[in-house]
Automatic annotation (TrEMBL), chain A:
Gene3D superfamilies: Winged helix-like DNA-binding domain superfamily/Winged helix DNA-binding domain. It comes from Streptomyces thermolineatus. SUPFAM superfamilies: Winged helix' DNA-binding domain (SSF46785). The lineage of its organism: Bacteria, Bacillati, Actinomycetota, Actinomycetes, Kitasatosporales. This is DUF742 domain-containing protein. InterPro entries: DUF742, WH-like_DNA-bd_sf, WH_DNA-bd_sf.
């Protein structure tokens, strides 16, 4: 594969470079396959402290402010990967890498999404229909 | 010193289930409007950096230009129950982002193809995509003011759809009609048994 000598100058490269500085250049995480756009992320209880400034005591120093932001976001309610990306205004790829770190540190857990290529069972679909009707 | 607290905020004991429905259609047909009509949050926008979005590196065909580095996806959320959440994803309208659809389509319950009778051909691509992958979809005709009215059967013929594919009329701004569209999508998904159609997505 030859690289395109025309590509990745100036503006073309711009938006890609800065966000990935937060991940120290990593573009993949080991937990990627778990991190579907709608996989729901929940902060683990042990990272839950008092609301007033216990973070320093609880979060390892290796975490970036963005890591901490993610944990904070996922504390109140489960948040999808897509929502976290939108909320923090970060590319989904960056969020995936950061979430991988948090998973490794056991600061968050991810709910298992419905396996791809397999529809949720009929009961759930019925509940969806009823839920939509009741909106 | 950190004191343990046992009275943590209560979370549902059941693992929450998240489902997604895709909203596809030509550029400017009203996808974001439709998502906004039912979403409990203002449609959010997230960006995917293209340099790595081809993660399943199998399909970069059709990407003539690599100059654009990010693409936006709009999405909304409907919490049906504490532990049941439906996400709506507006797929990127431009053809050159097809390969991003593969990730979006993975695990999707079904799809809405939003059509405008004045530019019916704009949704051919989306219909083709879902047909080839066996993803159950419903065609929703966004009834723009000033557009001629066509009965659903005429539209079905014009789009050469399978007789079982629902065609519904809607107003993408109107919550009630959009709800009907989504219900049609889920009902159609229920009626479609995925058996042999669930061929692995190729290319």
């Amino acid at each position: 594969m030859t690289s395109d000598p025309e590509g990745w100058f100036d503006d073309a490269a711009g938006p890609v470079v800065r966000p990935y500085a937060m991940t120290r250049g990593r573009t993949r995480s080991s937990s990627e396959e778990k991190l579907d756009l709608i996989a729901l992320v929940v902060a683990e209880d042990r990272s839950e402290g008092e609301d007033d400034g216990l973070e320093d005591a609880v979060f390892p120093h290796t975490l970036s402010p963005e890591h901490v932001d993610i944990v904070e976001l996922c504390r109140a309610e489960p948040m999808s990967v897509a929502e976290i990306a939108a909320e923090l205004d970060l590319p989904v790829g960056v969020v995936r890498v950061l979430l991988g770190d948090l998973l490794d540190a056991e600061l968050v857990r991810v709910s298992r999404p419905v396996p791809p290529a397999q529809l949720p069972d009929e009961r759930i679909l019925r509940e969806v229909i009823n839920g939509l009707r009741a909106l | 010193m950190v004191f343990g607290r046992s009275d943590k905020r209560h979370r549902p004991d059941v693992e929450p289930v998240a489902l997604k429905i895709l909203v596809a259609g030509g550029f400017g047909v009203g996808k974001t409007t439709l998502v906004g009509a039912v979403s409990e949050i203002k449609p959010l926008r997230t960006e995917e950096a293209l340099s790595e979005a081809g993660r399943p590196v199998d399909d970069i065909s059709g990407v003539e230009s690599k100059h654009t580095t990010t693409v936006a996806m709009d999405f909304g959320r409907i919490t049906l129950r504490e532990d049941l959440v439906l996400y709506l994803f507006g797929t990127p309208g431009q053809d050159r982002f097809w390969f991003l659809w593969d990730e979006l389509a993975q695990g999707a319950l079904g799809a809405v193809v939003l059509a405008d009778t004045r530019r019916l051909e704009d949704c051919f691509g989306a219909i083709d995509y879902f047909e080839r992958r066996g993803i159950p979809f419903t065609v929703a005709v966004n009834c723009f003011e000033g557009a001629d009215f066509y009965p659903p059967d005429t539209i079905r013929d014009a789009l050469d759809l399978d007789p079982s594919t629902p065609v519904v009329l809607c107003d993408a701004r109107d919550r009630q009609t959009v709800k009907e569209v989504l219900i049609a999508v889920v009902e159609h998904a229920m009626a479609t048994t995925p058996e042999e159609e669930a061929a692995p997505a190729v290319g």
